[in-house]
Amino acid sequence: MQITFHGAARTVTGSKHLITTNSGLKILLDCGLFQGMGAEADVLNRHFGFNPFDVDILILSHAHIDHSGLIPKLVKDGFKGKIYATPATIDLCRLMLEDSGSIQEADVVYINKRRKRRGESALKALYSEEDAIKAMKFFKPVAYNSWFNINDEVKFQFTDSGHVLGSAAVNLVVKEDGIEKRLFFSADIGRPGDQILRKPEPFPQADYIICESTYGNRLHEPVKNAEGRLLAAVIETCVEKGGKLVIPAFSLDRTQELIYALDRMEHQGILPPIKVFVDSPLSVQTTRVVEDHIECFNSELRDYMKKGDQRPFFFKNLHFVSDVEESKAINLLKEPCIIISSSGMAEAGRIKHHIKNVISSANNTILIVGYCTPTSLGGRLRAGEPEVRIFGETYKVRARVETIDAYSAHADYNEMIQYLSCQDVNQVKKLFLVHGEYEVMVEFKEKLLDAGYRHIMIPEKGESVEL
Ligand SMILES: [Zn+2]
Q: Ligand 1: distance of its center to the CA of 185 in Å?
């Protein structure tokens, strides 16, 4: 069989790897959108590098858009097969792909305005909200830890990768010429100390490994530090200064982690009695999906629920806000409060309005709890820029800006090597590094060589390798 790396090759987005077996079956691992690369991303997203019509099945690791975001286009362009994913991933995709469809439709209007000025022809949206709805019919749920036979030659199993709700690593076995070839695709690897999810679980021995490398050269702050620092930010801002605490957070994962952390503080009686707003329609819907998938929770969270808190993502003083008018009303509020809103990099969405409103007073705090690209609003605040532009106007940054790095959905290099330690390195014929910046991959490769892996490749986009 052969594998071709069509995305997340020497970059962190666009995850897409196509396997062609000797008998001609084409299996796509992930179908992600390239993101955060400006005009280049749009060009990459318009050309798969293969014909979607020829792909027989898609196995999806998780719902993040850089892994799932081109599914509606794949279907629109002729894919007729089945899309296998865990039940939680399917529920999340229903929300996230629809949301992505409406973003694509809005983005193309903006792009076309610029193209018109340059005398270029108008582009169509990559796909629409309706395309996303249509694509959902192709999904089929597959639970963790049970082998699923595609045909007599090919089977796969999902193992929990602990990255986001429903996230899975793919263990694929292909029988060719009487020999079983075992391929493991890590997709994104989570952290062992996640408050909601199980830790990434050991997986069966593989001959070939495709491993992510996002933080292949970094070590994170311990997860247990995060909660104390969050509480300190709440007390200093809301109690001591009477200000507002604004937290940009991704709708999936980070928002629920924050809600659950505040829920536990409330349960212990240490959370001051202030209002907490989760202000983003997608975050509100995503939190409902998370609540519905108890099968993905770790044992500590299940115990917490058994001990009496049946709703770990809900507490007194917590308000979910979907309505636009209600969202605007938060800005008029004079009392101290916590506002959790998306997007996580503060590039779009309601969070920009909230930041604009609190940025000019030293009583307020903007708390950054996730990765932000350097050019995003979150990234510029995080870098300590004294002035930032929001909606075309310049604002002096008088609010305090704080960062907590312990909330990461990706393992650091030690955690990834620990995760891979279930493998006998002597049986691994090749290890491919994907999903990372090239310089990071080079550093991670050195660490893996030290750990005993021998044949490590950093494939380029479009590169094919015979397995
Ligand atoms: Zn991910």
A: 13
Ligand 1 centroid – CA 115 distance (Å): 32
Q: Is the pLDDT of residue 35 over 90?
A: no
DSSP H helical segments within 220-298, as ranges? 224-234, 254-268, 281-292
d(CA 377, CA 355): 10
The three-state secondary structure class of 104 is helix
Contacts of 128 (CB under 8 A, 6+ apart): 72, 101, 104, 105
Task: Determine the distance separating the centroid of ligand 1 and the alpha carbon of 362, expressed in angstroms.
Answer: 35
Three-state DSSP state, 282: helix
Read off the pTM: 0.94
Task: Tokens for 398, please give them.
Answer: 């008088």
| Residue boundaries of the structural domains of the chain | 2-218+409-466, 224-403
How do 393-396 and 16-20 pair as beta strands?
Answer: unpaired
CA of 198 to the centre of ligand 1 (A): 15
How far away, in angstroms, is 117 Cα from ligand 1 center? 36
CB 189 within 8 A of CB 419: yes
**From ligand 1's centre to the CA of 124, what distance in Å?**
27
For domain 2-218+409-466, the CATH class is alpha beta
The answer to whether residue 385 scores a pLDDT higher than 80 is: yes
In this structure, which topology does domain 224-403 adopt according to CATH? Rossmann fold (3.40.50)
Q: What is the pLDDT of residues 310-352, one digit of tens each?
A: 899 999 999 999 999 999 999 899 999 999 999 888 988 899 9
Give the contacts of 188 (CB within 8 A, at least 6 positions apart): 61, 62, 64, 67, 161, 163, 164, 167, 212, 214, 409, 410, 435
How far away, in angstroms, is 188 Cα from ligand 1 center? 5
